[in-house]
Write a structure and sequence with these properties.
Helices cover about 45% and strands about 0% of the residues. With about 100 residues, it is mainly alpha-helical. The chain has one domain. The chain is globular, with a radius of gyration of 14 Å.
Length: about 100
């Protein structure tokens, strides 16, 4: 995108937004089960590191316990993208977990 131009965005259908919000919340519940330490608000640019105070090793350990496999995904991407990456890595997630 040329410098100085605002980012272009698209509005997703409400059902898609709700599904993705549930999936992001599920990830947050796995990584930080205590609601007191979960974020109140997340931007669409926020990564898991912006959302919780744990170090990467601890986040990966908790995800590994949840999925039963090592998680070799990039955790620095925005949470909505991490959800897409998990769905590509684990088709059927979260419905079949």
């Amino acid at each position: 995108m040329p410098e100085g131009q605002p980012k272009r965005f698209e509005i997703a259908p409400d059902t898609e937004v709700q599904r993705r919000a549930r999936e992001v919340q599920l990830l947050l519940n796995v990584i930080e089960p205590d609601p007191e330490y979960q974020p109140f608000v997340l931007t669409d640019e926020a990564s898991v590191f912006d959302a919780v105070g744990h170090e990467e090793d601890e986040i990966r350990r908790r995800l590994e316990l949840y999925f039963g496999l090592p998680v070799a995904l990039d955790l620095s991407v925005p949470l909505w993208r991490l959800v897409d990456d998990i769905r590509a890595w684990r088709p059927g997630w979260p419905e079949e977990e």
